Structure formats: C-alpha cells, structure tokens
Amino acid sequence: IPIIVVSGDAQERLVSRSFGEDVTDYFDKGLGFSALSAFIQGYVRPESEPGGDVLYVEDSRVVAVATRRMMEKHGLKVTHVISVEDALAHLDTAREQGRIPGPDVILTDVYLKSGLTGQDLLERLRGPDYGYGKRLLPILVMTGDDNPANQSVLLRAGANDLVQKPIEERLLITKLIFQLRVGRLMREHLAAAK
C-alpha cells in the first residue's frame, strides 16, 4: 500500500531526507488541489500522457532497453542518449528549433561512464546556461545509492524526484506521469500569459 505524505514543507523534508523509510512518496500541497488529485490518481490508476516526450540518459545498454520498454509500454515517446553531452546536444537542437525546453521530462541515471554525471546535467540545466526551472523541465534521477546525504545533494541540485534502482515499473511510471502533468500545466500557463 503506498504511503504518501501531503505537506507544505514536503520539498524541504525530501531534501533533508527526513521522511521515514515506509513513506512511498511525498506531495507538496503548494502545487494545488488539481495536482494532488492527479498525483493520487497516478497511484490508483496510472494512465499515460498522450505524446509524453521523455529524454532518457543512461549508458548501460541492458538497463536502457528494459527501462525504455517500460516507458513505451505506457505510451511515452522515449529519446535515449548515453551521455550528458548527448543530452545537452539534444536540448540545444530543440532550443535552436524554438522548442523550449524540448522534452516534457528528463529521466537520467546519476553515474554515467562519459565523465559528466546526472548531477552535472542537473546543475547545467538549472543554472544560468539554460535556466530551466523544476516546473518547466522536470528531471527525475535514477540512483542505486540509498545514502540520504547523497540523495539530498541531487535534490538540492535541482532533481524533481528520485527513482530508486532497481527500477519498480509502477513507481517509475507514476512519477514520470505526474511530472509530465505538472510540466504541461506550467507550459500551458506560460503560453496563456503571452
């Protein structure tokens, strides 16, 4: 049974890793009632977001094939790259074409063989080079590291959420779809404000 904490300080608690191990997930009530409804519905009955575009950064071919199949099975369009450099090139191309930010959500592994890590990707995208906020371009980070201090570093660097390895399909899809919905609401709001 999923245990979800709804709190006004959920993000701070997540960063400080002060939730108990039995908590499945958290929800920041500052996102509003409709977002909470979508979040809970995602646990009860996850549905794919039509045309959801995921940029997936993973250097392990075996892990990439299995995880990509999970996402595609739920109707998500997946662009797989093997390095941070490839991910940045993909995002630069999208920006040059006027498609900002490009994908609806990014799913990245922390440790990549190419030299740059998932944390480096977070810092670049959240920093002045790109300036993509958490709601404009949600980023989920996959990690097998259950050290709370290391997880806090990733969340402070700009991860919207973490996905523990080994990957549990239902949890991954629920988190992806929730972030897709939040990102789309933000982009729709920005488009309406223009």
Give structural notes:
The chain is of the alpha/beta class. It has a single domain, classed as 3-Layer(aba) Sandwich (Rossmann fold). Helices cover 46% and strands 16% of the residues. It contains seven helices and seven strands, in the order βαβαβαβαβαβαβα. The chain has helices spanning 10-16, 33-44, 61-73, 84-96, 118-126, 148-157, 169-193, and strands at residues 4-7, 25-28, 53-57, 77-81, 105-109, 139-143, 161-164. The strands form two sheets. Strands 4-3-5-6-7 form a five-stranded parallel beta sheet, with helices on both faces. It has a two-stranded parallel sheet with strand order 1-2. Helix 5 links the parallel strand 5 and strand 6. Helix 2 packs antiparallel against helix 7 (169-193). The radius of gyration is 16 Å and the shape is globular. The termini are far apart. The mean pLDDT is 84.
Number of helices: 7
End-to-end separation in angstroms reads: 43 Å
List low-confidence stretches: none
How many domains? 1
Helix content, binned percent: 40-55%
Round the Cα radius of gyration to an integer and report it.
16 Å
> What letter string, H or E per element, gives the SSE order?
EHEHEHEHEHEHEH
Mean pLDDT: 84
Name the overall outline: globular
> Total strand count, please?
7
**CATH fold type:** Rossmann fold
Strand line-up across the major sheet: 4-3-5-6-7
- What's the architecture in CATH terms? 3-Layer(aba) Sandwich
- Main sheet makeup: 5 strands, parallel
The proportion of residues in beta strands is 15-25%
Q: What is the highest CATH level, the class?
A: Alpha Beta
Q: What class would the helix/strand composition place it in?
A: alpha/beta
CATH superfamily: Response regulator
